[in-house]
Each structure stands twice: as structure tokens, then as C-alpha cells.
Design goal:
four-stranded antiparallel β-sheet; 1 helix; 134 residues; mainly beta; globular; single chain
Length: 134
């Protein structure tokens, strides 16, 4: 009986680490395209990730804020709008969106454009994106 108990303990010690943990967030790979861009006053901030033949772009998340005023963020793939924040959803505190556990993934060869519209007269906007391509 004692050997059976010892065998069970040993088996649990060996098997448990092999099961592993589920990932909470996706892991970036390939060419990392993370960026932070602050626009000039009264201008939109646009980040375009050009397509590469037979590769996909993976958008994991984005965040944005305005120095003052409010704005909206849009995401387009291959010229088609695929996501938009609520109207005026971006303000002076950082707001964001995340695609987890699976990132937004483009069709092979499609470009991705993320745009923070102008934050209003005399204001600047900052756009952060987390993306990769492979």
C-alpha cells in the first residue's frame, strides 16, 4: 500500500507539469510591428502596415488618447472597415481594445490600416498598436 501511495505521488509530480497552463494572452511572433505614434495638432494619426505576399498581419491590441477633446479609432483591412470604436470613445485617458485570445488576423497579402481621427482643434492624438506579421 505504501508503494502504491509513493507511486501515485511520483506520477502526479511527473504528469502535472506536462499538462501546462492555458495562455491568457497571445504570443507575438515573426516580424514585430509594435508602434507608438503621436500626430501633429489637428491631424489624424494613421498607422499602415503594408502587406507582404503570403503573410498575414496579426493585430493583438491598440490603445489611444487625446491631449484634449475626443476622437474615434478605426481598423481597416484591405480597404474594408473591420472595426471602429464608439463615436468619441477616445478621450484624454488611454482607451484600448484587445483581440484575445486570438488576434485579428488579415487575409494573406492584405494590408492593415489603424486610424485615430483628429482629436479636435489644437489637440494631438497618440496611437499605440501591438501587431506582428508572419
Amino acid at each position: 500500500m505504501r508503494r502504491l501511495g509513493l507511486l501515485c505521488c511520483l506520477l502526479l509530480c511527473l504528469v502535472t507539469p506536462a499538462i501546462g497552463w492555458d495562455r491568457v494572452t497571445p504570443e507575438q511572433a515573426g516580424t514585430l510591428l509594435n508602434s507608438t505614434t503621436t500626430g501633429a495638432t489637428n491631424t489624424a494619426v494613421t498607422k499602415t502596415i503594408a502587406s507582404v505576399t503570403n503573410q498575414r498581419i496579426h493585430l493583438y491590441g491598440l490603445s489611444a488618447f487625446c491631449s484634449a477633446g475626443s476622437s474615434t479609432v478605426t481598423v481597416s483591412e484591405g480597404g474594408t472597415l473591420v472595426w471602429t470604436s464608439t463615436t468619441g470613445g477616445v478621450g484624454t485617458t488611454m482607451n484600448g481594445a484587445a483581440w484575445t485570445p486570438v488576434p485579428h488576423t488579415t487575409a494573406p497579402g492584405n494590408n492593415l490600416v489603424v486610424t485615430l481621427a483628429t482629436c479636435g482643434g489644437g489637440n494631438t492624438g497618440t496611437l499605440n498598436i501591438e501587431a506582428d506579421q508572419w
